[in-house]
Amino acid sequence: MESLINLFEYEEFAKQNLSRMAYDYYSSGAWDEVTLRDNRAAFERIKLRPRMLVDVSKRDLSTSVLGQALQFPLLVAPMAFQCLAHPEGEVATAKAAASASVGMILSTMSTKSLEEVALAPGNSNFTSTQWFQLYIHKDRGLTRALVERAYSAGYKALCLTVDAPVLGRREKDKHNEFVLPPDLQLANLANMSQLKITQEKGESGLFAYFAQQLDAAVTWDDLQWLQSLSPLPLVVKGILRGDDAIRAVECGVKGIVVSNHGGRQLDGAIASVNALPEIVTAVDGRAEIFIDGGIRRGVDILKALALGATAVLIGRPILWGLAVDGQAGVSRVIEILCSELDLAMALSGCAKLEDIDISLVI
Predict the structure, then answer these.
(1) Catalytic site residue 175?
(2) How far is CA 19 from the centre of its chain?
C-alpha cells in the first residue's frame, strides 16, 4: 500500500480491515487509557537541538543488540494473537523482520508456534535475530519446557515480562465479550497436555491464561532459576524504576526493556520515555537498554536513542501493517520508520548512531 505514507495512516486503514473486537483488543489500554495516551504525548513533548554544518552525506543506521547485528535499531515487540490481523500472523511478521534485518521478539501467546516462526525466515539473505518472550508459570515444568524449546529452535535471548503478575483491566475487551475465534489457538501451548485453559464468554484467552497459569508470587529470586535453564541471555521487560533496573543488573540480566506494557497494565504509570533517563543512569552501561510505548515516527526513535536506549521495540504499528497487507505491510511499516530515522539523523547532524547523544534533546 504505497499510498499510505506514515504509521497513523496504517492504523486508520487497519481499523477498516479488522473486526471491532480485534481492533479494540490490539489498540486498547487499561482503565481510562491515561498511560496509553501519555506514551505518545511524552514523545511529542521532547524537543530537539540539531547540530549544523556536519557532513551527513552518508548515514549508517546499523547497530547490534546483545552482540547480534541489526541494520536498524529496531525489534518487533512481543504481541499476542497476531493471526487476528492476518492468517499468516507471526510467520509473516518474522519474514518481514528478517528481510529488513531487524529483530523480533515472539510472544508466548502467539498463534503460530515458536518452531514455525523460527523457521519462517527460511533462506533470507539476512541473519534472523529472534528472541522469545515468556512468563514464569505456576507450573515450572511448563516454563522449563518453553525455554528448552526456544533454545533448541535457535532463539537468541529470553525476554521475561515482569510487569504482569496479573492482567490489567481492559474495559473494551469486557464490553466486546472478547474471545478468540474457534480456529485460533495458543500455538506454543496447544500440545502441552498438562495445560488446560478454560475460556469463558467475556474474557480473552489471554485473561484465562493469566488467571489460571501465571504465578503472581514470582520475585527477583526466581531469575537465577530461569537463567539456569539455558545459556541464553536474559532480558527483562517492564521496568520503570532505577532501583528495579539496578536489581535486574545485579541478578545478571543483560538487557532491560523500559516499558509500561503499552499502557495495558497499570493505568497512570509513567510514560516509558519519561522513565528512560533514570534507568539509563542507574544501569550505567552494565546492560543494554531498550524501550517501547508510543513510538510512531522515526524522530521518536532518534529521541529514544539520544536518551540512552540501544534500540526500540515497535508494537501496535506492526499489527496495523500486518492487517493492511500481511508480510508486505509489516515490511512497509519498518521501511517507513527506517526512512524517517535516516532523515531525522541527517537533519540533526548525525551521520551514525554513535553521534546521537543527550545533547540533542531537551
Answers:
(1) no
(2) 23
